Amino acid sequence: xxxxxxxxxxxxxxxxxxxxxxxxLSCARLERERAPxxxxxxxxxxxxxxxxxxxxxxxxxxxxxxxxxxxxxxPGMRALAVSEDLFEAGLEFGTRVRIDGMDGEWVVLxxxxxxxxxxIDLYFGIDEQAALEFGRKRVRxxxxx
Length: 145
What we know:
By secondary structure, the protein is of the alpha/beta class. The protein folds into 2 domains: 39 residues; 100 residues, RlpA-like domain (Barwin-like endoglucanases). It contains 3 helices and 6 strands; from the N terminus they run H-E-E-H-E-E-E-H-E.
């Protein structure tokens, strides 16, 4: 009789443990299914060569205030142009970008001429002196949607 009672007790304990394990696994599965809704989009980053450009006819093709995205540039905008490889890597028109050493976010509105790789051009309006002072440098950029 003792052996039968012990077996029943063990079976009830095993069933209870199994039910608890099933509950834990079900909760974990539900948590994984919900996780993408709550997670922030993955951010990407790259180290690129940054330079500056102005709305000057010598620095652009055609209309110096018209971007490849169709947007019109105005002094004070935080716009940037990206090389073809960065565009293909997800830096499409409208993408917001943070640039180490620069305040705020910049928006991809333009494309750079063919032949440039891992490069961005920051828009400095009509302030040619500020663009010259910025020069050319390596910077880290971060973006994500």
